[in-house]
Amino acid sequence: MRVELAARFAATSSAPSLFLPPALRESIVAAGLLEGRLPANLTEHYTVRLPTERAEQIDVRATDAGRALLGRRLELSRLPRLRTALEGLHAALTEAGVDPSVLLGVPSTSPERLIAARPTLAALYAPTLFASGVPLLGAYRSELAMFTDELAAGRDADALLDLRLSGHIIHELCHGLSYETAGPPPPWMIVEAGVVELCRVAREGHVLPSEPGEAVAGTALFALLGGALARLFGRGALWRILAEPRAFTAAFGPRAAAVLEIAGYQDWLRRREPPFARDALEAIAWVKLADATFTPPRTFPDLDRAAELPPLTAARALPDLLLAVREVPWFDLPWWAETADTRDDELVATAVRSVFAVHRLTRVFETIPDEVPERRLLLDVESCELAALPRPDGIFVEPARALFPPPLARSLHARGARRITLEGVLRSDARAVIAALCELAAGTRALDAEPQLRFG
Length: 456
What we know:
Elements: H1 2-12, H2 22-35, H3 40-57, H4 65-68, H5 80-96, H6 100-104, H7 111-117, H8 121-125, H9 141-152, H10 157-174, H11 188-202, H12 220-233, H13 235-243, H14 248-252, H15 254-271, H16 283-292, H17 303-308, H18 311-317, H19 321-326, H20 334-337, H21 342-354, E1 357-361, E2 365-369, E3 376-380, E4 385-388, E5 401-403, H22 406-414, E6 419-423, H23 430-442, E7 452-454
Parallel strand pairs: 6-7
Antiparallel strand pairs: 1-2, 3-4, 3-6, 4-5
Helix pairs in contact: 1-3, 5-10, 5-11, 10-11, 11-12, 11-13, 12-13, 12-16, 12-21, 15-18, 21-23, 22-23
């Protein structure tokens, strides 16, 4: 299978600097072992479609202005979003006990040193996990054509780069460096969740936008999972696997690592489609499953058996773990019974801000800030889910939804609340909404089954 994948990739691109990223290769091989043959859609996606676009990105004969942004020298004084995100990235990793130089590949303690070593977007991207065969995120053909038109209309090149591409290059940097491997990487859902959570902590607007164009589209549900995994396992464990993918079992523990790997394979068997954004539609089930690995519910499949069987065998032998855990109520899971702390309050903030955005397909797929329909939010206490009403023009994840931390939900539930309605909310009220929900959850008085909170 590896030989066939290499041959198919070479038939698409003969550029010596391009090859199928080893981590992707091993994931495709694992899917092939599950299927009994290489999956046609994955093979075409990663050996034909994506390397074709990647070859176009690095074509030195190209003269269009959009593509020229990738080779434009970066001046951090003119790129405030990029500078802030790089500073935030260094600070977040250092605080979590992860060496930024291991993830970034440059012995650096500052954004300036990184940019001095790799002074363009192309240079920043070149050594990262996917660069040998996958286009830089946010710079696909349709996006580069849009950039060319915006530049022709008089848009400042640095302002455009900072708005449209700083979040995407940070996302790629958070994936870490390319590495050779003889086996599959950690589950891609877990990796992407870790990447998006790191991006969010580094600079929130690159995930939860405050203006159109700055966010990597379709990542809010990855942030939901990433924030929950950081709460359950710690940010150090979550971000360690980005810098050291082989440390997945050590970082998460044998049972959790095995269960999450099996769930990734089962997710492939159920959907059989290439990633990215649609992977996260089961984000809340992934959180429940990760939580269940600490103290499995009595009615749940034997998770110790998951750690004993070879992962590919277990993926077929065990019930579908994500589908099974959907039906497990939060009050049967360990996080529900934990004592709430400031990490839960931070998750409330992420949840509230995430529902004030909509996914739209205009010239490109993008996530942009938006008011919630009818100025109303709904909190279902038992399902730990905060949601807006459906947006008629939204094309993905409608209605917008987010996870409300189970320990805070338990406090509300114990005092009688089952469904909370928040009326009159605007994006400008986000801080007030966050404060009100945290204050309500921290209270002690009895509550109606369906209390209402009014704003504005």
